[in-house]
Amino acid sequence: MTKDMVASGQCSGLGLGFRRKSVVSLKFRRRELTKMIKEDFENNRIVNLGKYTNQAKWLAVGLDSMMYKELTWQKLLYQCSDRLIKFLVNAIPNWLNSPDNLRRWKVQGDHKCELCGNRNANLAHILGGCPWVLNVESIFPRENRYLWRHNCVLLIIARAIQSKLREVNSSPVRSSLPPIIFVKSGEKKPGSSSTPLRFGLLESARDWVCDFDLPEFHSGQSSFVFPHIVCSTPLRIDGYIMSMSEKMCIAGPELTVPMEELIHHWHSKKMSKYQEILENKSSDWKVTRLALEVGSRGFVPPSFGASLKMLGFTSSEISTLRKKCSLMSQRCSYVIWLNRANSEFKPWRFHDK
What we know:
alpha+beta, four-stranded mixed beta sheet, flat
């Protein structure tokens, strides 16, 4: 190993340059050397990829770490169809035949967005930024394609939260008093260790209710309204969780399904937008904001799990939920890509797997 070759720094009273005889086997040395060489090649690969501006945007937003969690072999082999895999493999490095790529590749033809006519339409334009979808399709008496994808993912989260609230409400309340610890004569008192809250923010009450701005939660003439008893606001939020006994309200989870490059931007924007609820809430209510993001290509940031832990979700529950949300986002984005020239798109609901 390199440390053995150049010697390690002294940190004891032994003489300068003193080294104990190494007991590391030759097999271990070879394995570690192979590991170092692989890491060196991987670092060089990442450096070279950084030279390609359009194809390596995922490097700038940390998608490489998300890929290890989302694009697993098990998922690719057993959950994704061949066409979906092909779409994902080409969407990540921006190899799809979007109008801007066709013009860049000098393919003959009048390449433009078939919905709004933009001649520089890229993948982000098609999957999340087409003005025709945002300004025209949104007027139609149905979900526009971006809202449809958002609601498909939100429905998975909403049903998981409903299940979690049923679990919380049916559980006994833990005593708020610390346990009495008896110490035998001559023994030391053990260090004080606070017992972690099992249900996070939901631990203090057993009358939690929730509502979400989804068609599945409202039928007929009923509509979603943020509880005026908490805050009178015109803001349209995705949902809320509330306890009347403790006067606690969780504003959210507020979901966004943006391009992965914009995840941090939209998280900050949503948190700032709903700051008004904290400023104008009733004085006797405690309000917490909660924002979630799922990338339009299915990559889920670490903040997704951290936010759900605040609601008492376990690691295994979060893992299952992020897989479902990731796959749903990918499937919906693939449908949006296939319908990039279809102005008569009609939404429906996928069955989450």
